[in-house]
Design goal:
It is an enzyme of class 2 (transferase). The protein is α/β, with parallel strands linked by helices and about 350 residues long. The chain has helices spanning about 15-35, 50-60, 80-90, 110-115, 130-140, 150-160, 165-175, 185-190, 200-205, 210-220, 225-250, 255-265, 270-285, 285-305, 310-325; strands at about 10, 40-45, 65-70, 95-105, 120-125, 145, 180. It has 3 domains: about 10-125, Rossmann fold (3-Layer(aba) Sandwich), CATH 3.40.50; about 130-195, Helicase, Ruva Protein, domain 3, CATH 1.10.8.60; about 195-350, Zinc Finger, Delta Prime, domain 3. The chain contains 15 helices and 7 strands. Strands 2-3-4-1-5 form a 5-stranded parallel beta sheet, with helices on both faces.
Length: about 350
C-alpha cells in the first residue's frame, strides 16, 4: 500500500464539523489512490471491543485493495487490558489499512495516546463564542447569502457549538428562504419546518405531552444519535433553570430575558422561544428544574457508557421521567433510582 495517509491516527475534541471534514479528507486521499476499491468500516467503542477491530485490520480487506476503519468514542476504553490490542497493533499496523481513532474528549488513557504518538494526534477545539458569529456570517457570505444580525444571534443560540451543526442549519435556511435570512425566517423555521427537531421536542416536553414527545423522539432517532438529542435538550434545560433561578430571586417575568442577557452576555432571541420558556416556568418549579438538570447530566453519562441498542429505551425513560416525574428517575423500577445505576448488562425494562 502506497502510504499516503498514516496507518494510525487519533482525532480528539468536541468540534465535530472539523473532525468530519478531516475524515472526508482522509477518505478522499485514499480513494484517489485506490478508487472505489476502498473498503470502509465504522465502529463505536461502547459497542465493538478493540480486539474485534484489530482482527478486522489484521485480516485485511475482503473486497477491496485497502480499508479505512473509523473507531469512535474511544474515551470509553479505560482499562489497560481493553487497550492492549490497540497498543500492540500500533507497534506493527497493517500496510493495507488506516485506523482512525476518534473521541469527543481531549483526555484519554495515556497508553492509547502514547501508542499513536503526538505526531499523528490532533485536537479539534470548539470555537470561542466570539468566533462563532464571524464563522457563520462568513459561511452565508461564501454562499452569496446574507443574514440579519438578530437572526444570526438567534441561530447561534439554537445550534450546537460545532461547525457541522452550524453548516447544516445554515444550508437548510438558505434552501427554505433564499439568500436573505431574517429573524422571522429563523423563528418560523425552528417551529414550522416540516421536519421535527430538538425545539419541537422541547415544546412538547414543556407542554407535558408525553405521547407527542415520544413520537418526536422516535423520528429524531432515525437521523440522530440519542446523545445528540439529549445534548440539544440539555442546552434548553440550562436556559430554563437559569430563568427559573432569576424568577425565584424576584426578577419580574417581564424583565427575565433582559436580566438573563445582562448576566450571561447572551440574549435569547425569538418570540416563540421566549414564549416556550415562559410556559416552562409555569409547569416546572425551581426544584423540579434542578432535578431535571441533574437527571439530564446523569442520562448523558449513561448513554455514553452502554451499547447503542439501549439508547432509544433510555431516551424514552428520560422523557417519561422529565414529563411525568418532574425530573425524578423512575423510582418504581426495581433496579435503580437514578440512571447511572442502570445495569448495562441487563435488558432495559422500560418505564
Amino acid at each position: 500500500m502506497a502510504r499516503t495517509v498514516p496507518a494510525l491516527l487519533l482525532h480528539l475534541g468536541p468540534e465535530e464539523g472539523e473532525k468530519q471534514a478531516a475524515f472526508l479528507e482522509i477518505r478522499g486521499a485514499l480513494r484517489n489512490t485506490f478508487g472505489e476499491d476502498l473498503e470502509e468500516h465504522s465502529f463505536y467503542a461502547f459497542e465493538t471491543p478493540p480486539d474485534q477491530v484489530v482482527d478486522l485490520l489484521q485480516n485485511g480487506s475482503l473486497f477491496g485493495s485497502a480499508s479505512l476503519v473509523r473507531y469512535r468514542a474511544v474515551e470509553q476504553l479505560k482499562r489497560k487490558e481493553d487497550l492492549l490490542p490497540l497498543v500492540r497493533y500500533a507497534r506493527s499496523p497493517s500496510e493495507q489499512s488506516v485506523l482512525l481513532l476518534e473521541s469527543s474528549e481531549v483526555s484519554l488513557h495515556k497508553d492509547l495516546k502514547d501508542a499513536v504518538g503526538s505526531r499523528h494526534t490532533k485536537i479539534f477545539w470548539e470555537m470561542f463564542e466570539s468566533q462563532k458569529k464571524g464563522w457563520l456570517s462568513g459561511y452565508f457570505r461564501r454562499h452569496d447569502a446574507r443574514i440579519d444580525p438578530e437572526a444570526l444571534e438567534l441561530l447561534l443560540e439554537l445550534v450546537e457549538n460545532n461547525t457541522l451543526d452550524l453548516r447544516q442549519e445554515a444550508d437548510r435556511l438558505m434552501a427554505f428562504f433564499g439568500r436573505q435570512i431574517t429573524l422571522e425566517h429563523v423563528d418560523r423555521y425552528i417551529y414550522h419546518a416540516k421536519e421535527e427537531n430538538i425545539f419541537t421536542l422541547f415544546d412538547a416536553v414543556l407542554a407535558g405531552d408525553l405521547e407527542h414527545s415520544l413520537d418526536i423522539a422516535v423520528k429524531l432517532l432515525v437521523t440522530m444519535e440519542a446523545v445528540q438529542v439529549l445534548m440539544g435538550l440539555s442546552w434548553q434545560v440550562e436556559r430554563l433553570f437559569s430563568l427559573q433561578t432569576l424568577s425565584a430571586a424576584g426578577v419580574p417575568r417581564a424583565e427575565l430575558f433582559q436580566e438573563q442577557a445582562r448576566r450571561s452576555g447572551q440574549r435569547i432571541a425569538g418570540k416563540r422561544l421566549q414564549k416556550t420558556l415562559l410556559e416552562g416556568l409555569s409547569r416546572y418549579s425551581l426544584e423540579e428544574c434542578r432535578a431535571i438538570r441533574v437527571l439530564t447530566g446523569d442520562t448523558d453519562g449513561l448513554l455514553r457508557s452502554v451499547p447503542a441498542a439501549l439508547h432509544g429505551g433510555i431516551l424514552q425513560q428520560y422523557l417519561y421521567s422529565v414529563i411525568t416525574r418532574k425530573g425524578q428517575w423512575n423510582v418504581a423500577a426495581p433496579f435503580a433510582s437514578r440512571p447511572w445505576e442502570f445495569p448495562g448488562t441487563a435488558g432495559f425494562r422500560g418505564v
